[in-house]
Amino acid sequence: MVRRIEVKFKPEFRDARAEYVKRKVKEYLGIDVDVERIDVYTIDINLNDEQFNRIKEGLFYDPVTQIASFEPIEGVFDYLLEIGFLPGVKDTEGETAADAIADLLGIRIKEGEGVYTSTQYRLSGDIKKEDVEDIAKNLLANELIEHWRIIDFNDWKANGISAIVPKVELKHKPRVEEIDLNVSDEELIQLSNKRSLALSLADMKTIQAYFGREDVINERKRVGLGEKITDVELEAIAQTQSEHCKHRIFNGIIHYRDGEKNETIDSLFKTYIKGSTEKIAEEKDWIVSMFWDNAGVAKLNEEWNYIVKCETHNSPSALDPYGGAMTGIVGVYRDPMGTGKGSKIVAGTYGFCTGSPFYDGELLPRMHPKRLLDGIVEGVRDGGNKSGIPTVYGRVFFDDGFIGKPLVYVSAIGIAPSEINGEPSHEKGIEPNDLIVMCGGRVGKDGLHGVTESSLEHGAWITAGHVQIGDPFTQKKVHDFLLEARDLGLYRCITDCGGGGLSSAIGETARFSNGCEIHLDKVPLKYAGLDPWEILLSESQERMVLAVDPNKINRLKELAKKHDVEVSVIGKYTNSGKFHVLYEGKTVAYLNMEFLHGGFPRLILEAEWNAPEYEEPSIDESNHNKILKSMLSRINIASKEWIQRQYDHEVQGGSVIKPYIGIKDDVCGDAAVIKPILDRKEGLAIAAGINPKYSQIDAYYMAACALDEAIRRVLAVGANLNHIALNDNFCWPNSIYDEKKNPDGKHKLAQLVRANKALYEYTTYFKTPCISGKDSMFIDGNIKTKQGTVKKISGLPTLQFTAVAKVDDVEKCVTMDVKHAGDLVYIIGETMDELGASELYEMFGEIGKNVPKVNKEVALRIYQTVEKAIKEGVIESCHGCYRGGLAIALAEKAFAGGFGMEIHLSKVPSNLVEDYKILYSETPSRFVVTVKPENIEKFEEMCKNVVFSRIGRVREDTQFIVYGLDGNKIINADINELEEAWKSTFKNF
Amino acid sequence: MVKVLILVGYGINCDYETEHAFRLANAETERVHVNELITREKNLENYDIMAIPGGFSFGDDLSAGKVLANKMKTNLHDEVMEFVKSGKLIIGVCNGFQVLVKYPLLPSMEKQEATLTFNDCGRFLDRWVYLRINEKSRCIWTRGITQLYLPIRHGEGKFVVKDENVRKKLHDEGLIALQYCDKQGNITDEFPWNPNGSIDSIAGICDKTGRIFGLMPHPEGYLYKTNHPRWTRGESEKGEGLKIFRNAVEYAEENLV
């Protein structure tokens, strides 16, 4: 019997969630409406009346604050809006409810039974049905994952509301399709397109040739396969060769032309990224493992390693920002969890790039950037908080180019003892006959074709099957289980199951033993009716794959039972050289391992660099007070504390430098610091550098500045310059030239080449290795315009560097807030005429041409100086000059510390003759520090290798005063006013 | 040595630092999975203190702490009652506090009289709060402390009671252990001092024996000077949250071991 339970707050208690929705409706849609919220549980479990009553009373409501009823709860309203999940969409609360019912009643939930959650909003006000549609469609529901009903009061009064059971019932009988590859080139292409394989004609012909080989035909015959390729094989190949897995652009051959100069680059990845890290690794003994595993590994101290991975999760977040971002953060945790023998996740970070939340232009994206950002923020919040992993740091960068596709960076940091049971923890291996064990979530149609689709531009054709929703609760159980299993030595190899599902996870790990045998019918499913290829490729979340010695499987299963984690033996690793897949005893795929992982033609691409030509503007600087306040309130500078406050950044007890600091804990610092081993003094400083605006002029310096920013941020809190591990994350617009579809593809690819050249140049000079990284090569979208046309929008080429650096002694860390009146203010580094693509120019509607450039020799000397000064304790506060330049850095330092300042621009080392240029130039590598009077001599002595100057002092009061080059006061403002300007932009977020 | 059971599993996530806190307080600790108690592989009676750490047990589904409370009550009720009767101690922090009021073990054991519901702001919050210890409280865990500064990290931390009688009882019987206050120590309802809208700014309560204690702020989040948000401004000498754990361990040493 199906029954609904409705749960509502008693009138005498405030329902904060309903009030929140009321506020959002007003804010987003300008509709005034009163909101009552009702949680609805639709229970499709065979229970008797007594049992139904027991679960209602025992589980579904809080007797202090709420009421619950099987009948619709009485009320008066104008419209009722009820939103529930579409069939097959992950409903974690429904699953928990079903488990809790089983526990309470001591029963077993049968196949096909379940609990489904939905939310009812009862709306009252001067509204029409269209308004409710608007609220549903444009604020509360996402049609890709949810369904909704709108019922008016009279209808509800007369007819009540029916129960909807969004159960998946596939009438489909699983089958394997055989596909003839002996067809024309045109048909091959059609086949690739029809199945969204993202395989080129050359790829298709490679497959065709392989399947035409006599030895292949004979071998396949022996296992019962015909001459045609099966859909399982084709999908597995497409997935393995996808951009996501093989990084085909980064591994392609590129002909790069810069004016007269021609150059052929044999793999950007090999030449620049791997090339750099391998060179640096020769002299950095703290690099433990890089590139081959799920994440990079470095040494924290003699007993502990740390493991870092940064990822992006862009396309899914564009469709379902909440689910996509949550899947992103929860998914990236699995990388360090599956690195080496596995690690414990101790921190996460985020980076969000979207269009302006205040966007009001001609484009009509499916979701407004503000709503998209809201969803992304909340997805990372729930994913991180519910995982018990502190989200310690994050960046947000707005540019309307990201309306096509948002960027969602997520990173995870894990720790592991350097040795586990006498073996190095970063190593793993597999013996033939080891069992393939899948643990965690069950498999459904989630995320099918996620991997191949990230190789394509985002458009309306992406199916809902793409969207996965993470389940941090299930994964937390898996994580607890795996850490215990690791320490007991119950598995030999571990890897995560992410993009590409089992196909990728097993296909990759099978390389250790050189073969595998997978039985797809052994894979536990969420619902029947999946085709074998779907089981193999599904991206259902929260799964890990283990290689287990058959002698240990029983102990592993017992441990899994304790943790309430589902584990299934789904095959074994072999040394057959074959990727062998069976379903109900019949072979459905039989591929040579070497063919699956290699043997495909490389991309050959054209890149051509033509520097864009811009002019330098001149700026009206008549009112510096006003300019400073306007700059502080710019969306890329203003406070985004509302995001960080929702993120638990302290769980696990290791918080040392929090993301927001200062006298009121409300100004964002340069970096976060954690102490992952509670009773040791070593810490990890964590920050990121990102500034895609500079790509408007030259992606070379965009990359250099992002790197310089990441390094300076961690140095500013006291990190060790000798020990900075980087993650590079490239997010690039489509760089494959096509005369019609992508006419500027060569330019975008040239920008990619240049960014890579910069990466190599600067990382090798600074000796800061990229120990892991990732690329997302299609940050484009096709968006409707107000005129009804469709416009292709490409995001700015964006490279984010995440820096994780060792802090030798966390008690030596410093923060950016000024500490005492009377301290002296210093700038380190010369200020140049570098306002190209700066925040100031953007505010005045200009771009300019003088993009900020990193001078590596100068930068390194500055880094060394700052590192030393902090270690020796002569600096009271330290802050880098980033977006917005010196003026912003100084103002932030002042209001963070609660003291005013007086600053003399004439003292700032520079050849510039305009005040505004000194204040807002974005010359990299600069720091602003404060020093106690008694430490002046010591500090100045330490600075002898760099350009520096004492430019002012910290005042006793709260006045922020700047004297211009001519000695006149040009800025005179109270720090509270400045802080107010900085906080005003997102005050209501 | 005092033996502390640190409850783990099902989304509990402050277990490591809670264990660390009790170790710093000179107790012997053991991480025990809920299911190990249910299968009787481990027995509650072998421990002096039970800690239900913070976290997101069962993902906060069906309201925070509810499902874990039910699981314990359905499967472990006799053992829990015996544990309480024998004079042992229980602490529930954050999600653990939510478990204790929904079980209910706090403020009393008969019927649920209080709860923790959604913050007035409608969102999860991580921020530090000033706390005043109720000098009239019976709470063993807060003895000798007058003020504290600790982080809160919750979405459902607003303490409310069923009716005025319960409220009166909390006050009259000294069950209120600590309350949110401003920097100067004045108890106030104002945000952000009272971060969630709790009635009478209640942040933590105890039972009538003073041995069962639940609180929303995280004492295990302030075990080291460097946890303090402004330690770089010289505002902290040492981890103040440790005192709470010391009090309990000392009490157990004197009365239970």
What does this 3D model show about the protein?
The complex is a heterodimer of chains A (989) and B (257). Among the domains of chain A are: 2-159, Phosphoribosylformylglycinamidine synthase subunit PurS (Mth169, Chain: A, 2-Layer Sandwich); 179-234, no CATH class. Chain A contains 30 helices and 44 strands. In chain A, helix 1 (16-29) crosses helix 4 (129-140), helix 14 packs parallel to helix 16 (472-487) and helix 16 packs across helix 19 (553-562). The model of chain A is unreliable at 450-456 and 458-464 (pLDDT under 50). The mean pLDDT of chain B is 97. With 257 residues, chain B is α/β, with parallel strands linked by helices. Chain B has 6 helices and 11 strands. A 9-stranded mixed sheet of chain B has the order 2-1-3-4-11-10-9-6-7. Helix content of chain B is 26%, strand content 24%. Chains A and B meet through helix 1, helix 3, helix 14, helix 16 and strand 28 of A and helix 1, helix 3, strand 5, strand 6 and strand 8 of B.
